[in-house]
Amino acid sequence: MPTHDVKDVLKNYLHEELDENGNAVEVREDDNLLANGIIDSLGVLKLVSFIEHQFKVQIPDEDVTIKNFRCLKDIASYLETKKQQPEVEG
Amino acid sequence: MTRNGSDYDVIIVGGGPAGSTAGTLLAQAGHRVLIIEKEIFPRFHIGESLLPATWEIWQRLGLVEKMMQNFATKPGVLFSIHNNEQHMFSMEEARELLYRPYAFHVRRAEYDKMLLEHARDNGVEVWIGAAVKDVLFDGERAAGVVVAKKDGQSQRLTAQVIIDATGRETLLARKLGWLRPDPTLNKVAYFTHYEGAYNLTATEPVPTYIFGLEGAWLWYIPMKDDVTSVGVVMDMNHPRHKGRDNAASLLSDFVSDCPQITDWLQGAKQMERVRGIPNISYINKQFTGDGFVMIGDAAMFVDPIFSSGVYLAMRSAQIAADTIHAAFEQGDFSQAFLSSYEHELRQHQKNIFGMIRNWYKMLESESPEEAVRSFGRVARSPLMRRNFLLTVVAGLFKKGDIVPLMEE
Known about the structure:
The structure holds 2 protein chains of 2 kinds. By secondary structure, chain A is mainly alpha-helical.
């Protein structure tokens, strides 16, 4: 899946999440997700599960870093690098 | 009589942490303040685990030394989900970002009394055992209060600003119909204190313990002098809660689901009757009006999972006191002016409600295994761990507060 699609899928996901909490905000691809209350630590948890399910990838806990999950653009490029590494099962 | 012809500059109804904090800060700023408290202190109150974000306020109040002398040090919070793996979140991990990398466990009878006495020492007039029967309005504007004193006499007093710090009594919100329960957090809490339970506070810093169970969670808070607070929070619709009104057996049923607490309470003596608080969370429609402000639990009450109650009470009091001081400088006590307090407080409050909802979503995952796995991920991932530590455990709830810290 091209990175712009990844970002769109995540944008839609976040928009729905925010609606549920009653404070919908349009998320741009370089918005800091931790700033301005867009997402909290337990919100990151849900986002990570969503990504794993949606894009059929496994994200090791140690990869959930500020660098990789700062904004949608960073998440997309992280997933891009994951795709280039062969998935090791087990 | 004050310069402006009213009996006081500010009358504060209620002398808990919110009322006392607002009183001290306003008196320090030179205002003539009266606190009216209906109870005789010390009195029992729940909410014993404090947050490191409160240091800034203890500093302004001049209470840093007293806090360190009088109370048990809380180094962090230990979470365990479904009696599985225990995850300790220690403030030491964020030492470089905090004024002090710990907070305190306090018996509220003692802590609240200290804060109220401190207000008096700072020049606040304090009446105890006197109940405010009503707030008087001049049109839309709050103008004074009617007080029933110990001797049965009733008295009318006027002030430029009335602060409602009545706690869950929510005097003004009830009068004005502003109370808004939060239906998504329809919980009930049962709790008491024990003597002789597992409690190492005399020899070492002890964390707050949180045990997440099926549809409920328990707290275990060891305090000084061998007193330990234990409580459970569950959904109002929890099968165990439906149709039951025996608070003591409800609490003990949940304790027996938690081998760790059961073990820690062996041979302990219950010191207080088990009390309950239903319909825990609410937020008032507004926190301000012409000539009045609501602070602490009189403005909103947040689910206790992240121990935010006392911090939000004192933070709201500090913001309200600063706003009211500015109102005196401007000579403007209108809702329009005072609402900047509300705007600022909501920056602190918004995120905490989101985090609490996410906590319950995690606890109520499809299966207990899923909940255990989820919290394990929070504890192990660098981003989530740091974020959880700074927001939930340290109390940096305000939008944007945490981001610059995380990026250092």
